[in-house]
Specification:
By secondary structure, this protein is mainly α. The protein has a single domain (2-199), classed as Up-down Bundle (Methane Monooxygenase Hydroxylase, Chain G, domain 1), CATH 1.20.58.220. It is 84% helix and 0% strand. It contains six helices and no strands. The protein has helices at residues 2-31, 34-63, 72-97, 106-127, 135-161, 168-199. α2 runs antiparallel to α3, α3 (72-97) packs antiparallel against α6 and α4 runs parallel beside α6. The chain is globular, with a radius of gyration of 17 Å. It starts with a helix and ends with a helix. The mean pLDDT is 81.
Length: 200
C-alpha cells in the first residue's frame, strides 16, 4: 500500500499543478495585460519544469519496480497526460506573448475557462485517489471532462474562422496549445478510470 500511495501522491501533486497553471492562464487571458502576462509566463514555466521533474521521478520509480502496485500502462498514461496538460498551458502562455497586440479575446478566455474547469475536475479526483472511489464517479468524471472538450473543439473552430490574417499564426498556436490541454485532460480522465477499474 505504501508504494501505491507514493504514486497517488505524485498524481495529486500533478493534478494540483495542472489546476494552478490553468488558473494562472485563465486570469492572464482575462486581464490581457503585458505585465500580468510576463509574470504568468514565469509561473507557468516554473510549474511546467516541476511537472517534468515529477514525470522523470515516476518513470524511474516505475522502471525499478518488477510488480508495480497499479497497472504500469495506466500509471504511464496518467503521468504523461497530466504533464502534457501542464506543458500545454505553458505553451499557450508563450504563444500568447508572440501576438503583436495583447488584447482580451473573448473566445480565448472561454476556452481557457473550459480548460480550468477540466483541471478542477481532474485535480479533485486525484486528491481523492487514495480513498475509496466508486466507479460511478469515475464515469461521471470522464463524461464531464469529455463534454468540456467537445465545447473546446466548437469554440476553437469559431475562433479560428473569425481571426484576422495578421494575428492568425500566433492565435492558432495559442488555440492549438489550449486544445492540447483539453485533449490531455480527456486522456487523464480515461486513465483515472482505468486505474479505478484495475484497482478494483
Amino acid at each position: 500500500m505504501k508504494n501505491k500511495n507514493c504514486y497517488f501522491d505524485c498524481f495529486r501533486e500533478l493534478g494540483l499543478m495542472f489546476r494552478n497553471s490553468a488558473e494562472e492562464l485563465k486570469n492572464c487571458f482575462d486581464k490581457s495585460d503585458v505585465f500580468v502576462l510576463g509574470e504568468t509566463a514565469l509561473k507557468t514555466e516554473k510549474i511546467s519544469y516541476g511537472a517534468m521533474q515529477r514525470e522523470t521521478e515516476i518513470s524511474c520509480r516505475l522502471s525499478n519496480e518488477f510488480l508495480p502496485p497499479l497497472d504500469r500502462g495506466d500509471i504511464l498514461t496518467l503521468n504523461r497526460a497530466l504533464v502534457r496538460c501542464i506543458c500545454a498551458v505553458d505553451d499557450s502562455c508563450k504563444s500568447f506573448m508572440q501576438m503583436k497586440s495583447i488584447k482580451r479575446n473573448a473566445s480565448l478566455v472561454k476556452i481557457a475557462d473550459a480548460v480550468l474547469k477540466q483541471s478542477e475536475i481532474i485535480c479533485s479526483f486525484t486528491e481523492d485517489f487514495s480513498r475509496s472511489i466508486k466507479m460511478k464517479n469515475a464515469v461521471q468524471t470522464v463524461s464531464k471532462v469529455s463534454g468540456l472538450m467537445h465545447g473546446i473543439n466548437n469554440d476553437y473552430i469559431k475562433c479560428v474562422s473569425g481571426v484576422s490574417t495578421a494575428e492568425f499564426s500566433a492565435l492558432c498556436q495559442t488555440l492549438g496549445a489550449l486544445k492540447e490541454c483539453g485533449c490531455c485532460a480527456d486522456d487523464a480522465a480515461w486513465a483515472i478510470k482505468g486505474i479505478i477499474i484495475s484497482s478494483g
